[in-house]
Write a structure and sequence with these properties.
Number of helices: 17
Radius of gyration: 22 Å
Number of domains: 3
Helix content: 25-40%
Largest sheet: 3 strands, antiparallel
Distance between the termini: 20 Å
Length: 411
């Protein structure tokens, strides 16, 4: 999934008191460009800052938000349109305080609210790495934000209310693995940026951390629609039915016995988690499985008529691959039992899969299952709403009804 963008905006500002790379290594002896390359993988920097594969980290990726469209920027070492003239302190302030070198505020679509937790030593490694990548002359596009959100000065009170600049502190009551997993999930991986609901001002809600949220990203045909980032807590509607091994396999290979990666998570797995060590992936799994269940209120219940219609659609179009009991088959379809996508508070991801089929990674990724067809032209809005509602209350799933208007919105 395009986890929320780096919006580190370029500034061609030459500052004479720049801390040299050798001085930085003396101050942070464990820092290195090689370690920074690994950390950049963990942070999924490539996906958010690379619009064209031939110009990595040159920016230009569009991010749709409720406040308008933001564009990621050039973080290569170009001295004018990238960050080549930035001191380490400029880089650190951008990552942890959300400030440009000239003091202007960065939009919190760039998740400095999470990156503030990254240690200075790891920030030094990232800085060294981005000084070593190929330089591209690519000026950032202007953001397209509606008033008053286009006024950066308003971010000062926003930060006062919602931004904690504290770095990550290990919990002494937890294991080293748990703490490493917490650091990867909460800081570098910034999973909450997509998987935590936000309030009306765009800040993550701590009381609903990692319990699922709605983001905008592209569907298989290339246009933007809502997607539901699933509940990552140990909830029956989240990861309760997943073992630590299931989580590791999904993050490493993009599939396990319960799911195949698709949609916005493709970029996360392909550009980030598949490159992490098994030790780090296991730490992330330990941390996620330790998260207490967080539930959202189910606001609607499908009618008997809708369930009957949904069962008919399922029997005709779905049951041959997912099987009558929803258990699926390793050579046909994934299991539908206690499926986090089906049970998401918002049904948009489920509707997208039915309308457009799963948006799978490009080759050489392979999945030993029948590829699901696009049912958008075969089924009406009412039929897709009916079968979605049927899935959301059967096969061990607990979620609300879907109506035709929601389906129409996703088409």
């Amino acid at each position: 999934m395009r986890t929320i963008a780096f919006i580190i905006l370029p500034l061609a500002l030459l500052i004479s008191d720049s801390l040299g790379a050798e001085d930085l290594r003396v101050q942070y002896p464990e820092a290195s460009a090689e370690q920074g390359a690994y950390l950049a993988r963990a942070g999924n920097c490539y996906a958010c800052h690379t619009a064209q594969d031939e110009s990595p980290y040159a920016g230009g990726v569009a991010f749709q938000t409720p406040f308008g469209t933001l564009y990621s920027t050039n973080i290569t070492p170009h001295p004018e349109t990238g960050i080549g003239s930035w001191r380490f302190e400029d880089f650190r302030r951008a990552m942890s305080e959300g400030l440009r070198p000239n003091g202007e505020h960065l939009y919190p679509a760039f998740p400095y609210t999470d990156f503030a937790q990254i240690s200075d030593s790891d920030l030094a490694s990232l800085y060294l790495y981005f000084r070593s990548v190929e330089s591209f002359d690519a000026r950032a596009r202007e953001n397209e934000l509606s008033f008053p959100y286009s006024q950066r000065a308003l971010l000062s009170p926003w930060k006062f209310l919602f931004h904690d600049r504290a770095t990550f502190e290990p919990d002494p009551s937890q294991s080293d693995e748990w703490n490493r997993g917490a650091y990867l999930v909460e800081a570098l991986g910034h999973c909450g940026a997509c998987h935590t609901p936000r309030n009306a001002l765009g800040a993550e809600r701590a009381d609903l951390a990692l319990s699922g949220a709605v983001i905008q990203d592209k569907v298989k045909l290339g246009f933007y629609r809502d997607w539901a980032a699933t509940n990552l807590t140990n909830s029956p509607r989240g990861l309760a039915s997943w073992s630590e091994e299931d989580i590791v396999a999904y993050l490493k290979a993009g599939q396990n016995d319960k799911a195949v990666v698709h949609g916005p998570m493709v970029e996360v797995v392909m550009h980030s988690t598949q490159h992490l060590t098994d030790t780090d992936l296991h730490a992330m799994a330990i941390y996620l499985k330790a998260q207490e269940s967080v539930e959202h209120v189910i606001e609607s219940v499908p009618s008997d008529e809708q369930l009957a219609a949904g069962e008919l659609v399922y029997t005709v179009h779905c049951g041959s691959c997912h099987l009558p009991d929803g258990t699926g088959d390793s050579g046909l379809g994934v299991t539908l039992n206690q499926n986090p996508i089906i049970q998401a508070d918002d049904p948009s991801s489920l509707i997208n899969v039915i309308l457009y089929g799963p948006h799978l990674p490009a080759p050489p990724f392979t999945v030993n299952r029948t590829t699901m067809k696009m049912f958008g032209k075969r089924l009406s809005d009412d039929e897709i709403a009916a079968v979605s509602s049927y899935l959301r209350v059967n096969f061990g799933n607990q979620a609300g009804a879907v109506d035709a208007a929601q389906v129409k919105r996703q088409r």
